[in-house]
Amino acid sequence: MAEFRPYSGAHRKLLIALDIGTTFSGQVPQIKGVTRFPAQEHVGGDSKVPSIIYYKDSEFLAAGAEAANIVEDLEDVTGGGKTCKSFTRAEWFKLHMRPNPKQSLDITQSIPPLPLNNTIVGVFADFLGYLYRCALTYIRDTHLDGVGLLKSVENHIEFVLTHPNAWEGAQQAQLRQAAIRGGLVPNLEEGNARIHFVTEGEAGLHFCIRRGLSFEAMKRGEGILIVDAGGGTVDLSAYGQVTSVSEKQSFHEITAPQCIFKGSVFVTKNAYHYLRNRLRGSTFAADVDHITRCFDDTAKLRFRNSEEPQYIKFGRTRDNDLNFDIRSGQIKIPGEDVAAFFEPCIEGITQAILKQKMHATKSITSIFLIGGFSASDWLYSRLKLSLKPLGLELLRPDGHVNKAVADGAVSFYIDHFVKARVSKFTYGLDSYVPYDITNVEHRRRLATLFVDSDGVDNVQRKFSPILKKGTEVKETTEFREDFFRKADSLDAIPNPMMDDILCYRGPSTDPQWTDVESDMYTRLCTVVSDTSRIKRSLRPKRGKEGKVYFHLKYEVILSFGLTELKAQYNLMITP
Question: Which InterPro entries match (predicted)?
């Protein structure tokens, strides 16, 4: 197992990693798990808490285990087994923050809506604030002089927030807003600097390294694949080891990471639809939600054999309906039906693994399965069985793999084992080029023709890439491209100047025009610059037919230093 080096910073620090999962969340300060949560004190050594929030009239009421337990109280008050309209429940809310929700309508239809008058940032803020308060209380109550410790680090608490591989700058910005609103850091530059991000896949690699797992495949020059199977998403990340003269281990991505919506909540969703159809006409038809929760809590993870029936305990001994195989408060479900709940997830994960193997720049034979969903023996055995004939070995680390991401997030902050990543998409600007009458693509865009300030004809909708998909990105690498603005006068040069950084998500390896597959282009962020000072240094130029104009040249610079995109301008004066 890798050893931590002594901390030598100027200020004493507290590091808290928060992993908000779709179904459960974990937090690990100083690699010591928070194992005590409100209303969950009876669960010994559990660093997880349900990702559930209850609101009353849109105001935060309870979260975690307290929110899970409040259901019974509400049912006692309202009667009939249904909660009062003034109380609303937020669960699986993490999936609402996914990129491109319009392109995954099937997912939208599968997850509960957000509570009325609440935004995804607001719900995340409430839950982050809850986890943070739990962490502080735990440290205060369990650490020797916990009050003094927290006082000494109150302005030096660093946070590592984990997120699925598919999340990008827009989702990181929302998480940052939620952290500020949740009271984790002040809305100041120094507060923002204390928020860090890491993908769940990369955190998983750090967990495996810290657990002392032997990557024999890497010693043979091969790569490995980390499959983090969680509640909502399954994140796949492939790595190879870099030969280094230093003692510190170093890894790089060998293909772009992947994220699929095949987590355990979709097994639960399949069970819900099955039970709703199965119990139609039964006296227990109104209890489908409750029975589904019971399946989720017990039968889902303990299911091991498709040839044996499963029993879901949901009621009392006098609850019977023999026509629907309900006896003594238990419903009997054939094993093959339960297996069918899992099958779409198993098939999706298998195909995603094969895709990672196909695109990796190194051979992959070893796969490490972690995450809460990995605790399912049925998932593990079925994946292992389907992958073995393909020469792929599936391994499941011992220990608490359900909090692997939270543990790994702390290691990410301290170790930074991954030194190079692979760009998942192509990033660039929507620009224009001089019109060429011999170019058929230019002639197709005659409707966009315009005369620039230098008198030259141009066509628009040209995509100018800055960073292409599949490019290896090192921590210190900057990607630069030259652009320009032309204007008839200095006053016509915009101030502030702004450019949208576009992300192309389509299949093409060389996208050329933003009006082709236009739905595949999304705005990642906007770069803004003050041009007031540099405009005074510009000198007039003469263009076509002696037309006077001003020319401002600039670079757009993209940096993916760690796991967070940064973009900036570099304004230049041309002779």
Answer: ATPase_NBD
Within 10 angstroms of residue 189's Cβ, the number of other Cβ atoms is: 7
Domains recognised in the chain with CATH numbers? 14-200 (3.30.420.40), 214-396 (3.30.420.40), 426-572 (no CATH)
Phi, psi values for residue 216, rounded to 5°: -60, -35
Residue ranges of the alpha helices (H) in 416-563?
Answer: 440-443, 532-535
Do 463 and 420 contact (CB within 8 A), yes or no?
A: no
Beta-sheet pairing, 330-333 with 521-529: unpaired
Q: Which residues pair with 53 in a beta bridge?
A: 63, 90
Task: Pull the structure tokens for residue 10.
Answer: 């100027």
Three-state SS string across 539-565, please?
CCEECHHHCEEEEEEEEEEEECCCCCC
CB proximity list for 196: less than 8 A, separation 6 or greater: 158, 159, 160, 161, 413, 562, 564
Q: CA distances (Å), 241 to each of 40, 216, 224, 250, in order?
A: 41, 11, 9, 6
Tokens of 176: 């940052």
User: Which of 439-461 are b and which e, b meaning 16 or more Cβ less than 10 Å from the residue's Cβ?
Assistant: eeebeebeeeeeebbbeeebbbb
pLDDT tens figures, 163-198: 999 888 889 889 999 999 999 999 998 999 899 999
| Residue-wise pLDDT tens digits, 135-156 | 898 888 888 888 888 888 888 8
Q: With CA atoms as reference, report the closest residue to 225 among 361, 346, 366, 352.
A: 366
Candidates 340, 342, 395, 341; CA nearest to 367 is 395
| Both structure tokens of 111 | 């997850």
Q: Is the pTM of this model over 0.70?
A: yes
- Segment holding 494, helix H or strand E: none
Structure-model confidence comparison of residues 401 and 28, the more confident one: 401
pLDDT(96) > 90: no
Residue 190: phi and psi, rounded to 5, are -70, -30
Q: Where are the alpha helices (DSSP H) in 98-255?
A: 105-108, 120-142, 146-153, 169-181, 189-192, 200-210, 216-219
Tell me the β-bridge partners of 550: 487
- Give the SS3 label for residue 11: coil
| pLDDT in the model for residue 561 | 60
Distance of alpha carbon 252 from alpha carbon 522, whole angstroms: 27
Strand residue runs (E) in 207-266: 223-229, 234-241, 251-253, 258-260
- Which pairs with CB-CB distance under 8 Å and at least 24 residues apart come from 505-508? 505/100, 505/425
Give the tens place of pLDDT for each residue, 384-432.
999 999 999 999 987 656 678 888 888 888 888 888 889 889 999 999 9
Residue 80 has pLDDT above 50, yes or no: no
Name the packing angle between helices 264-278 and 335-359 (round to 10°): 150
Q: Could you give phi then psi for residue 353, rounded to 5 degrees?
A: -60, -45
